[in-house]
Design brief:
This protein is of the alpha/beta class. The chain is built from six helices and five strands. The protein has a five-stranded mixed β-sheet with strand order 2-1-3-4-5. Helix 1 runs parallel beside helix 6. The two termini are 28 Å apart.
Length: 165
């Protein structure tokens, strides 16, 4: 998507970080599909160390399990499922004792040969705000680059966070 507005998404993350600072809220992420981009965008704003407690990039199933996602969730529902996104958000929020946990999982432009539930362009993300969980499905049209997929997903997450706050 050549017309994706990266600058707009970066500006929304600046707004989010400033809002979190103002409201004295902390955030953490457990990212698979976005590979840490959401946490990185949060830290692009001065003062972000007051709100981002830490983050996990859990690209493989084993990494998710090592950081607190129950193996049974992945075995029962698949790694690319709303259930796994919920478990990721809960696990990272608990690990860092943050107000907000974000978990995101899914496949971009290709099928993951290691996971049968891989559907290209389908992502799930959950925002755990002090124990209240909201889970979303994101269906992405084909995009030219992996960065485009990651930025599109990060843009959807920040839209949701800004609405929630």
């Amino acid at each position: 998507m050549a017309n994706m507005d990266y600058a707009k998404i970066r500006e929304q993350y600046r707004e989010l970080t400033e809002l979190l600072i103002e409201k004295k809220l902390t955030i953490t992420t457990m990212e698979s599909a976005t590979a840490g981009l959401i946490a990185s965008l949060i830290t692009d704003t001065e003062g972000s160390s007051a709100v981002l407690k830490g983050a996990f990039v859990t690209y493989c199933n084993e990494a998710k399990i090592m950081q607190g996602v129950p193996a049974e969730i992945i075995d029962t529902f698949g790694v690319y499922s709303p259930d796994t996104a919920r478990a990721m958000a809960k696990a990272c929020r608990a690990a860092y004792r943050a107000d907000i946990g974000v978990g995101i999982t899914g496949s971009f432009g290709n099928v993951d040969p290691n996971n049968a539930d891989s559907v290209p362009g389908v992502l799930y993300y959950t925002i755990d705000f002090r124990g209240r969980l909201n889970t979303f499905r994101l269906d992405l049209d084909p995009l030219p680059t992996r960065l485009d997929y990651k930025m599109k997903a990060a843009g959807e997450v920040v839209d949701t966070l800004l609405l929630m706050l």
